[in-house]
Design a protein that fits this description.
GMP Synthetase, Chain A, domain 3, three-stranded mixed sheet
């Protein structure tokens, strides 16, 4: 179960500007109902000053999507389009006192809708509709440009990051290879920053990693994935993604790993994920 801030709950239960703007002259549409999340952002902009005088939205999606859309409108009313264009998805999330990592794509969706609305108002030609090879995730209609912006603005480095921030790869998982290739190309174009060498993993880590490697094919076959985050003397922390993220069977998956670790290591190891834990009674 995800932990939501009081501000997220407030904007979900009492969304600001959830309405149709009758005299809107800038509209941005992103997502689709078939993909699970869709947002229409409507703005009434003063043509002379380009100040956003009114904003409204219609959102189909989860509570985080509604809260993010509400926060977006509050942040841009009264700003010029140039000022609004500088708004980042992180600022939207920060305004809500944070979002769970798995829900960051909701703030990105708001930022993408704003970009589309500003482009429409200024008469700028929309980006080509998924040129050949540009569409990465068919399940959620995410293209390379969307992924590139999310990676660069949020310093994303892993497949899991991209899934959390764009939803790409969060469905059937068939695009994971494309995402990783795109991510690799983006990161290879960035300046290399020097960093301290990583500490070699000990025998505990390697043993846990080996057990997880044996389970991953079965988890991936159901559309999920598991990644090792940390190992201490008595606890193992993993990250669950894809269909495992928020799944009702999460406890069973963690208990399965926990039992395999006990068999492999010959001692009890408590297993937790970055979003869930299991009790010792689960095995």
């Amino acid at each position: 179960m995800w932990n939501y801030s009081e501000k997220v709950k407030d904007h979900f239960f009492h969304p600001r500007n959830a309405k149709v703007v009758e005299q809107a002259n800038a509209i941005g549409d992103v997502g689709s109902i078939s993909c699970g999340d869709a947002l229409r952002l409507m703005l009434r902009v003063d043509p002379a000053t380009e100040v956003i005088e009114e904003a409204g939205f219609q959102t189909f999606g989860c509570g985080s999507a509604i809260a993010s859309s509400s926060a977006l409108t509050e942040l841009i009313i009264g700003r010029t389009l140039t000022e609004a264009s500088q708004l980042t998805n992180k600022q939207i999330a920060d305004y809500l006192d944070g979002l769970p990592p798995e829900k960051m794509h909701c703030s990105v969706m708001g930022q993408e809708a704003l970009r589309a609305a500003i482009a429409q108002f200024r008469g700028e030609a929309p980006e080509a509709d998924h040129e050949e090879g540009a569409l990465i995730c068919k399940c959620f209609g995410v293209d390379e440009g969307h992924i590139r912006r999310a990676v660069l603005q949020n310093n994303l480095t892993t497949l899991e990051d991209v899934i959390n921030y764009t939803k790409a790869g969060g469905g059937c998982t068939s695009c994971h290879e494309k995402i990783e290739q795109t991510l690799s190309e983006i990161l290879s174009q960035q300046p290399v920053m020097s960093k301290a060498p990583e500490k070699p993993h000990d025998e505990n880590w390697l043993a846990v990693e080996e057990v997880i490697a044996g389970l991953r094919p079965h988890i991936q076959a159901d559309g999920g994935d598991m990644r090792l985050l940390d190992v201490t003397e008595k606890q193992v922390t993993v990250s669950l993604s894809g269909s495992c993220s928020g799944c009702m069977m999460t406890d069973m998956t963690l208990a399965w790993l926990q039992q395999k670790l006990i068999e492999r290591l010959g001692r009890f190891m408590h297993v937790v994920s970055d979003t869930a834990t299991i009790s010792t009674s689960a095995v």
